[in-house]
Amino acid sequence: METTVAMSAREALAALVSPEGRTDPYPLYERLRAHGDLVEVKPGLYAAVGYAACDRALRDPRLRVQDAEGYDRAAPGWRAHSSLRGYADSMLYRNEPDHARMRRLVSRGFTASRVAGMRTGIAEMTDRLLDGMAELGGDGSPVDFVAEFASRLPIAVISALLGVPESDHVWFREIAADLTLALEGFTSDGLAPADRAMDDLAAYFVELMDRRRGSDDVLSTLAHVRDADRLTGDELVGNMMLLLTAGFETTTFLLGHALLLAFEHPEHAARLRADDAFAPGYVEEVLRFEAPVQATSRLVAEDSELFGRTIPGGSKILVILGAGNRDPKRYADPGLFDPERTDVQPLSFGAGAHFCLGSPLSRLEASIALPRLLQRFPGLAQAGQYTRRETWVGRGLDTFPVTIV
Ligand code: HEM
After folding, report:
1. If you measure from the C-alpha of residue 357 to the centroid of ligand 1, how many angstroms do you get, rounded to a whole number?
2. Domain assignment of residue 271, yes or no
């Protein structure tokens, strides 16, 4: 790959979506950083690549997420897709005051104590999935860690939390995978499976809400909120869909990289086996080193003084979280994977008003799952080449063959 200093910001950004760039975007982030912490890529398009610039862009109330109104201008015709309408009804695609109202209401169902109460359940779900891996790989055959574990745990956990019965988990995983297509961006290509999934899911939630009225789970709590007329029916479904999908592949990607880095650093794998308390710091460094969501974006509503210059209204700022996480001004030797670092605050869950609502849950899942996996299979080893997801924003492994004996 051409990564000379002379590479323009525009070339570096374009190279990020090439196969080489998707495999290893980090040298390209340095090419971008050579132009500054906030780089003008072309008129109306900026890239934040410094830690402080990313953080400030996400916290600045003058910067907005692309919402329905914005998509009407940028991608007319998007409303024909129920999957896109579903996301547009969720908090991630709303600005204030709608966003704060939704987030407050959804947080009521998704409380810290409810998440913390999942600890035993997560350990049990982990052990069940490890039993499955033992059955498949007990004779030394390779097992795909992503298919058999990393993609199953997040769905099992979020389903349990939302109140989806176990008998529906397999169906739920398929629905979530189809819906995730629509999270890749508001383009209208190839969305038929996502639209079907959205329609099925909306009907399913309405029926489940009636069935579980009065139970102690997120859906029932939110259904009550809707009864009080503070979250419309569409908003309820949109936000349930967001909870289902926002934490699915992201946590799968986190688990995949957590294991890959453990294989690459056997000394850390040994500590994870011996000391559960090592896991949270390890997971934090995995999040910094390999952000599952490499970038998000914000729009500048009107001409604004930002980062010491005037950014014209209507401009888009790409906030490259994966670059901010490796800013040498924030972390010494940022390309070194070092779980012993102190003061690690990765940008991987965003920052500001839209800071990830599920961050405690995914941190908890990874911190429980990883030591249990390594303790259960002392001979766990990589068995051949993994494959990567062919996307830049979503960064993670698609398949990861391992042997367990
Ligand atoms: C490692 C796993 C995860 C990563 C890397 C991740 C990443 C992110 C990021 C970067 C954002 C902010 C996007 C922006 O500002 O444009 C976000 C928002 C969000 N995430 Fe996560 N997420 C993860 C897991 C989860 C889980 C498990 C859930 C729920 C069960 C979840 C639910 C949400 C929700 C609801 C929002 C929107 C918050 C808002 O708009 O106020 N995420 N996530």
Report:
1. 6
2. yes
Distance 270 CA to ligand 1 centre (A): 30
Residue 246 Cα to ligand 1 midpoint, Å, equals 6
308 — phi, psi (to 5°)? 75, 15
Could you report the per-residue pLDDT of 179-223, keeping only the tens digit for each?
Answer: 877 776 656 567 888 899 999 999 998 888 877 777 777 777 777
In ligand 1, which atom is closest to the CA atom of 298? Answer: 16
Query: How do residues 9-50 score in pLDDT, each as one tens digit?
Result: 999 999 998 999 999 999 999 999 999 999 999 999 999 999
Tokens of 110: 């998704």
Atom of ligand 1 nearest to the CA of 239: 35
We report the CATH number of the domain holding residue 325 as: 1.10.630.10
> In ligand 1, which atom is closest to the CA atom of 347?
10
- DSSP 8-class letter at 49: -
Q: Which domain holds residue 331?
A: 36-403
Q: How far is CA 133 from CA 130, 374, 402, in A?
A: 5, 12, 10
Where in 283-379 does DSSP place strands (E)? 295-300, 304-306, 309-311, 316-320
Q: Give the dihedral of Cα atoms 17, 18, 19, 23; nearest 10 deg.
A: -50
Pocket of ligand 1 contains residue 350 by CB under 6 Å: yes
Q: Phi/psi of residue 203, each to 5°?
A: -65, -40
CA of 247 to the centre of ligand 1 (A): 6
Q: Could you tell me if residue 281 is inside a domain?
A: yes
For a mutational test of ligand 1's pocket, the pick from 298, 321, 356, i.e. the residue with the most ligand atoms closer than 8 A to its C-beta, is 356
N- to C-terminal Cα separation, the chain: 38
Q: How many residues does the chain have?
A: 405
User: Which residue, by CA, sits nearest to atom 25 of ligand 1?
Assistant: 247
Q: What angle do CA 188, 97, 214 make, to 5 degrees?
A: 85
Question: Which amino acid residue places its CA nearest to atom 36 of ligand 1?
Answer: 356
The answer to whether position 12 is within a domain reads no
Q: Rounded to whole angstroms, how far apart are CA atoms 222 and 110?
A: 9
Answer yes or no: is 2 within a domain.
no
221 and 366 in contact (C-beta within 8 Å)? no
Whether 153 lines ligand 1, by a CB cut-off of 6 Å, is: no
CA-nearest of 50, 107, 48, 60 to 353 is: 60
